[in-house]
């Protein structure tokens, strides 16, 4: 099969139906066959991920300004729904470090009731986004933007844990913004609790040591257990989950609707939109990572719908925002998961842990959970990618650093929007520079052969060119970014010869601005008595141009330059030229 046949076959592949696009991967797996061996693999993977998620879910909830049980509710309810309804085989849903900044800010402005309402609203937005099939466009977020906002979030998470890492006592409420926060923490430097520092160092050191020498073990859980044991046995004066929150409940709460008033809904609307935007980006990025590790392909819009229902479910049980989590999803893949059942089992195991071990959670030091998040924030910074983007080009470096700075000092959503806008402008500039309009002279080797018989005396046989004809070749995507530059050149040459051929065979796409430029060129050529030919235009270009007035008799279309020259040598055209 040659390239043309393969291309033809690819173009005529059946488009997936709506049912296929929104069929959860769980249904696909069960339909294809699921046996005991696959279940055993999913049980092991689910248990492994649950052990990782247990301390992490509580730590993220505390850092977000809510009680630790809400993190567990989120992982249990939201994580189960993500796996049951999602478009990825391996996605693990739950509370994510990327949301800490947004959730904490929402709690500070609107309280826990406002947070839960915003979470439910964001779920509705994600469902609508998925069913409108907008998930395909989320992947257009430029890479420097994702690296910048991820790194910026990591810095903010680490800064938010300094108080617990050092056991500081602040005179008032801890500020949310970075610079005022650092100033307040600096003013409280004299209240450092050495016991908290020891617990923090023990936790971080244990995680690093286990990851280096026994990476297959659940380092975070082991580190938290060691820190809790040390604090209890030595009687260290540190705050624990029990002293601050009274521990965690042993059952799930009864589902209930969040407090709702029109005024509160309007107030939390910007937060809900931010939750939905970040949740879509984070979950689809996590699914892409899983695809890269396994060779599978996720269904992006189905995944967004599942994330939406998961956020609504989490809010009904008093949980916080749910999204796909990259680290836990990667752990799921490495643990040998086969299907979404591993994610559902991860939630079930977390529920069992909460029912059985809830009293023991009271002994967990907050400094230990802060140490866990310190490691998480360090791992979130894509250090190699950051350095590579700084060195790659000035444009990518600007997008990266602007996004990074805005996330840290202004707002996460603002950082993403501005970074995306800068990335789009950079892309437009690069694409515009790749558009070229060059004179095609001499025509080609076969042109000389065509004129060697002497029938066309107006051709220069030695050079293979026609002094009355000029040919220009346009290459690259011709769009508004290049319209001004190309238009200026076309305007200069539109009336230089009696015949003007514009070769568009290397133009993959053309927008309305570019079509108007060609229409203006054709109009000027017609006024000057110049015959204007467009050669080699693709079907999509041929469809666009007539809609903007570029049609016969103002221009003539030809499949190739040779066909255009053949038209020029036709008797009717020759008589017109002689006149």
TrEMBL record:
Keywords: Membrane, Transmembrane, Transmembrane helix
Residue stretches making up the STAS domain: 459-568
First-listed, main subcellular location of the protein, grouped into a coarse class: membrane
Coiled coil ranges: none
Residue ranges of the TM segments: 43-65, 71-87, 92-108, 114-134, 141-162, 182-210, 217-236, 272-292, 304-327, 347-376, 397-428, 470-490
Topological type in the membrane: Multi-pass membrane protein
GO biological process entries: transmembrane transport
The protein's name: Sodium-independent anion transporter
């Amino acid at each position: 099969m040659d390239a043309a046949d393969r291309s033809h076959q690819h173009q005529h592949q059946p488009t997936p139906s709506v049912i296929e696009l929104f069929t959860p991967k769980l249904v696909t797996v069960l339909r294809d066959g699921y046996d005991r061996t696959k279940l055993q693999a999913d049980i092991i993977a689910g248990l492994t991920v649950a052990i990782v998620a247990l301390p992490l879910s509580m730590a993220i909830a505390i850092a977000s300004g809510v009680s630790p049980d809400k993190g567990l509710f989120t992982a249990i309810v939201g994580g189960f729904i993500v796996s049951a309804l999602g478009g990825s085989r391996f996605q693990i849903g739950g509370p994510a470090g990327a949301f800490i900044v947004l959730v904490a800010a929402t709690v500070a402005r609107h309280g826990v009731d406002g947070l839960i309402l915003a979470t439910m609203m964001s779920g509705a937005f994600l469902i609508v986004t998925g069913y409108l099939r907008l998930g395909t466009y989320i992947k257009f977020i430029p890479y420097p933007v994702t690296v910048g906002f991820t790194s910026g979030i990591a810095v903010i998470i680490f800064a938010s844990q300094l108080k617990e890492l050092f056991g500081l006592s602040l005179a008032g409420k801890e500020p949310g913004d970075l610079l005022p926060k650092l100033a307040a923490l600096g003013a409280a430097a004299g209240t450092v609790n050495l016991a908290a520092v020891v617990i923090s160092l023990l936790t971080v050191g244990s995680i690093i040591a286990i990851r280096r020498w026994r990476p297959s073990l659940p380092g975070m859980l082991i580190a938290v257990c060691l820190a809790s044991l040390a604090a209890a046995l030595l009687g260290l004066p540190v705050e624990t989950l029990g002293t601050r929150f009274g521990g965690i409940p042993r059952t799930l709460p009864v589902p209930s609707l969040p407090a709702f008033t029109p005024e509160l809904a309007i107030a939390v609307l910007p937060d809900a939109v931010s939750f939905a935007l970040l949740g879509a980006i984070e979950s689809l990025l996590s699914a892409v990572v899983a695809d890269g590790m396994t060779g599978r392909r996720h269904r992006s819009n189905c995944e967004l719908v599942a994330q939406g229902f998961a956020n609504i479910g989490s809010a009904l049980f008093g949980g916080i925002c749910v999204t796909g989590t990259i680290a836990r999803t990667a752990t799921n893949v490495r643990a040998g998961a086969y299907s979404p059942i591993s994610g559902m089992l991860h939630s079930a195991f977390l529920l069992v842990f909460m029912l059985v071990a809830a009293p023991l959670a009271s002994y967990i030091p907050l400094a230990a959970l802060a140490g866990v998040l310190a490691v998480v924030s360090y791992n979130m910074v894509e250090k190699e990618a950051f350095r590579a983007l700084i060195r790659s080009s000035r444009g990518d470096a600007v997008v990266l650093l602007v996004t990074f700075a805005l996330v840290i000092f202004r707002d996460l959503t603002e950082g993403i929007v501005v970074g995306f806008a800068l990335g789009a402008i950079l892309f437009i500039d690069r694409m515009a520079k790749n558009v070229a309009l060059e004179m095609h002279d001499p025509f080609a080797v076969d042109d000389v052969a065509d004129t060697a018989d002497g029938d066309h005396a107006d051709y220069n046989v030695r050079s293979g060119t026609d002094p009355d004809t000029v040919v220009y070749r346009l290459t690259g995507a011709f769009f508004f970014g290049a319209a001004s530059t190309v238009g200026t050149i076309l305007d200069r040459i539109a009336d230089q010869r009696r015949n003007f051929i514009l070769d568009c065979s290397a133009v993959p796409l053309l927008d309305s601005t570019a079509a108007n430029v060609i229409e203006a060129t054709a109009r000027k050529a017609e006024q000057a008595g110049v015959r204007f030919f467009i050669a080699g235009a693709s079907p999509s270009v041929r469809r666009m141009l007539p809609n903007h007035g570029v049609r016969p008799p103002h221009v003539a279309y030809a499949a190739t330059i040779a066909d255009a020259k053949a038209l020029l040598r036709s008797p009717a055209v020759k008589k017109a030229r002689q006149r």
